[in-house]
Amino acid sequence: MPHWENHRLPWETWYTLIVVVLLVGAMVSNRVGTDTAMLGALTLLMVAGIVEPAKAVAGFADPSVLMIAALFVVACGLSETGATAALAHKLLGRPNNGISARFRLMIPVAAMSAFMNNTPIVAMYLPIVHDWARKLRLSPSRLYMPLSFAAIMGGACTLIGTSTNIAVNQLYLNAFDADGDRLIETFGLARPSAAMQFWWIAIIGLPTTIVGIVFVSIGAKWFLPERVPPDSGEVERRRYTLEMMVEAGSPIVGKSVEQAGLRHLPGLFLTEIARDGNLIQAVGPEEILEAGDVLLFVGVVDSVADLLKIRGLVPATDQVKKVETDRHTRTLVEAVVSHSSPLVRRTVRQSQFRTRYNAAIIAVHRGGERVGGKVGDIVLQPGDTLLLSTHAGFVPAHRNSDHFYLCSSVEGAREVFHERARLSLGIMALLVVLMTAPTAKIFTGLNARYGLDLPPNGIPPLVAAFVCATLMVWTRCCTGTTARRSINWQVLIVIGAAIGVGKAMDASGAARAIADALFAAAGGLGPRGLLFSFSLLTAVLCQMVTNKGAAVLMFPIAMALAAEGNGGAGLNPEPFILTLMASAASSYMTPVGFVTNLMVYGPGGYRFTDYFRLGIPLTLLVATLCAIIAPMAFPFQGHL
């Protein structure tokens, strides 16, 4: 066993340590992508023969990587049906002050993040929180960072809350399979069941979340300054005038404008309502919506795309329904009319636009001026920008046409299938049930009683995730195309490559060498002090590299620390595994520590050091709770 004190490390250990240092430096510099850096490090380790190629690339087929890919599809189904957005609007309410607002914001966000990918949750909440802060007369900077931190906290409460938990859990299962006899004999451990795998991180994650929400909700008043967002002024952007009709039988009929969520929409303004031949101007928030109302909105294209996702609102023009395309492939496109276009100086109706292009014009922008009248009566001019509802093939078909100067799709402007929202939530609930229910015991009992041949090991988490991802596509909660696009391939590459790097660290002795150094520095503090120090080291590393990569790199170190503890007799590794999960999932100290921190960095107008104010105390709280709770739930000497 190598020891730092005598510096007699084999060349393989030094080579691996140098590669890891270069890897961390490359990712800290932000000059290369995380996936590129990880693949580069893995390649260097394979070239030197530190790890066999077959073992090095086995991480890309690891069950944790495949399960994460399936969960991206499940999250896509929830987003495409509007389930997450509907939950957000219902849960916020109307708080009376900043502390109450943060509680109302953080509790549902944390709860949702425990079962859904936290990145789309934060993306969904950003415009909602901006509008909310304006209504409450609060600085958005007092809400955006708590939003990100709540999403991070919730992800540490269940196995599927974050891909980091899945990766570490699978690594422990692999280690248990490889060394299970010693762990069983020495510590009386058992291979964790599916239900235990799903919930055991909650032993630390739930107390951390509760303490964290209380601390942030109250402490933000003093620790978070009011920052002016960088884009505080109005930016001149292309605005459209759009008519939307309230459908009969829609859920917004009988609700006020504010209750329907149409008041103070970001970048979008409701200017008037046409009802039974009468025009209602200066629309107030208490105006009750009726079936058949035609609402006139003025706003930027991104907000128009969001407006089309509100259940019960449809474009007032009947041409949209006549476009020959599947609802699942319908999208928004912007097209600029050219001087040589046959559309010039003809009305939309005369040009037979829908018949000619299989697309419906729902709004027209002309030099910043409002184009009045019905869409069908607008006389088109060169340079007019048309907002079209059409099929996904419109842009490729007309990109080089002399009828348009430019054609471009509006990002994320797909139709939301609200009627499938409950179905998508049901599939999500099925995923939780399949991953927590004791299916092995159930199947064994059914086999014994009815003579069936069901798998005695039950339904593995990977199979449960694949089943639910497949159901999302088969039930049309999302299409196969959107499901493929929803998968973050960079995340999968980073985790797959990091697993290979972790194997190299273990095989070369680098993990044991780092563990020796940490043990020499903190071993005198006792097992709990060692756990506290390990938590802080993991949290610091997460600020320099991705939390997923850091977790996989720290896993062999956690196992090495457990093996060296108790005077070399060894400690139960489970407290170290739980601490690794909780610490790697808790990236609070810098904006680059987690993707959601970066998402709120600009909108909140934060400075880099603002994250220290809340992040450092939270990190210390996590480390303290890990050192206290983990050994209580899983004693260092095991369960003998």
Category by helix and strand content? alpha+beta
Major sheet description: 5 strands, antiparallel
Query: What is the mean pLDDT?
Result: 79
Helix content: 40-55%
CATH superfamily of the domain at 239-418: Regulator of K+ conductance, C-terminal domain
Overall description:
This protein has 26 helices and nine strands. The longest helix is centred in the first third of the chain and has 25 residues, at 163-187. The chain has a domain at 239-418: 2-Layer Sandwich (Alpha-Beta Plaits). Helix 4 (63-80) runs parallel beside helix 18 (461-474) and helix 6 (98-113) runs parallel beside helix 8. It has a five-stranded antiparallel sheet with strand order 3-2-4-1-5. It has a four-stranded antiparallel sheet with strand order 7-8-6-9. It has helices at residues 11-29, 34-47, 53-56, 63-80, 83-92, 98-113, 118-136, 141-155, 163-187, 194-199, 202-223, 301-307, 319-322, 353-357, 394-398, 421-436, 439-450, 461-474, 480-486, 489-508, 510-522, 526-544, 547-564, 574-584, 595-601, 610-633; strands at 239-246, 268-275, 278-281, 294-300, 313-315, 330-337, 359-365, 385-391, 404-414.
